[in-house]
């Protein structure tokens, strides 16, 4: 028993979402936890994903005069599902009728492009290397989500020129209300932080049973040392169904493009957002209660 416990301690694997809350310096989305004054949040009738909760908090901030920041989804190591969280964030914005751009900046993986059906499409690499017009390479979906693929590197070592991408991003920001990108892992890619610095805020992703809390801690320290802004960590729920796939044919493109969307409606998301606002107000107005100690 002691040997098993020691092995699990050494592995540093995140066994449950409480491990993330205890070891992270930033907000954690996708976890229903009681807060300090004893107020426990009521679980909505339809479970709210971490991505939807993060978008709700971003929009709450935007209601107080702040603009929606451009986001890049990163992780500590290569195998964590950055592409899924970036996709879900884009879906959550688009479901509320925000014009959304999803950008693939992950030069170490083709997972997002493969899932969306545009892994071999020209994109950001061609824009940066050939000075192409960015809008000409954007793929359309009938979800209200535009997609800027990474591009085809044809087996070569893919690198994004930060200066050229910064100019591309500057030119696109006026056309979109929300921009979400997926980037490389921070610990496995030397350019991870350099690319992340081009967008306003970083969103980390972790998966229970796969991610390690010590690697998450190292990543957060690296971000803090670099002076970058982190919005929080989204817990990827492996059991959440992303069952609806919509395909549309781009004008002038013979290849169908696929994008996933979870089973939720705009009304559901707005109701969840309203419920969070109400519960936060209630928590702020309730007096803090000290725990009662048993005299015995």
What would you call the structural class?
alpha/beta
Arrangement of strands in the largest sheet: 1-7-6-2-5-3-4
Look at the structure and give the mean pLDDT: 75
Shape by Cα distribution: globular
Q: How many separate helices? A: 10
Tell me the Rg in angstroms.
Answer: 20 Å
**What assembly state would you assign to the polypeptide chains in this entry?**
single chain
Q: Please give the share of residues in helix.
A: 25-40%
Topology order in helix (H) and strand (E) letters: HHEHEHEHHEHEHEHEEEH
Word description of this protein:
The protein has 296 residues and is α/β, with parallel strands linked by helices. It contains ten helices and nine strands. Helix 3 crosses helix 4 and helix 3 packs across helix 10. About 11% of the residues have low confidence.
Give structural attributes:
alpha/beta; two-stranded antiparallel ribbon; seven-stranded parallel sheet; 36% helix; globular; 296 residues
Write the layout of secondary structure elements.
Layout: H1 2-11, H2 17-23, E1 28-29, H3 50-62, E2 71-74, H4 82-95, E3 100-104, H5 111-116, H6 124-130, E4 145-148, H7 162-172, E5 178-182, H8 192-196, E6 201-206, H9 213-225, E7 230-235, E8 244-249, E9 256-261, H10 266-285
Parallel strand pairs: 1-7, 2-5, 2-6, 3-4, 3-5, 6-7
Antiparallel strand pairs: 8-9
Structure, briefly:
Helix content is 36%, strand content 15%. The protein is α/β, with parallel strands linked by helices.
